[in-house]
Design a protein that fits this description.
By secondary structure, the protein is an alpha/beta fold. The protein is about 40% helix and about 20% strand. It is built from 6 helices and 7 strands, in the order H-E-E-H-E-E-H-E-H-E-H-E-H. A 7-stranded mixed sheet has the order 1-3-4-2-5-6-7, with helices on both faces. Helix 4 links the parallel strand 5 and strand 6. Helix 1 packs across helix 6. The two termini are about 20 Å apart.
Length: about 220
Amino acid sequence: MNADIDAKLIEEGRKLFAGDWKFVWASPSIETLPPMAGVEVAFAGRSNVGKSSLINALTGRNALARTSHTPGRTQELIFFDGPDNAGLRLVDMPGYGYASAPKTQVASWTKLIHQFLQGRATLARVYVLIDARHGIKDVDQDVLKTLDKSAVSYQVVLTKADQVKATELEKNIEQTTAALAKHPAAFPEVLVTSSRSGAGMPELRAAMVRLLHERAR
């Protein structure tokens, strides 16, 4: 039965993300956020963890989200809407932990992220992206604690899995899962992805479809 449900969700996810996705809004401050609508899922992660690449891979569009070799380029909350009536919106959050950015800028991004997490009723889940080569770092722990305090449901997504040997990846998955057990708002299952190979994208899309179903009840 579970396999049938999973297969159905994966097919629904494929159709949803094969539809028309478009950029709709950029918010440099909490005052400029778009009106709340539908179900929002946000993507958080250290600068250069591959957030924009993941969003592009999810939607099958090479340039929907801007990718850059310069960490910390995304300085706003970027909103993308899916097909009409789908009711799903993706939010690309500013990367955190970029030491080379001016401290005032980092403080501004951090404040924006925290305010968004604490005051957005339409925010159903945050996907926290962690580089599969490195696992959870101290700067990630700070964000996980903020999410716990805000009581925002979140799930860890390991990125760049194609760049890690299988044995090392397995070890990092185990360590990440163990670390998440200490965080009350964390979803226990870790998703493993590669934007380059497409691995894990069907499962991530299916997870979002499941969220849509849950919110519709």
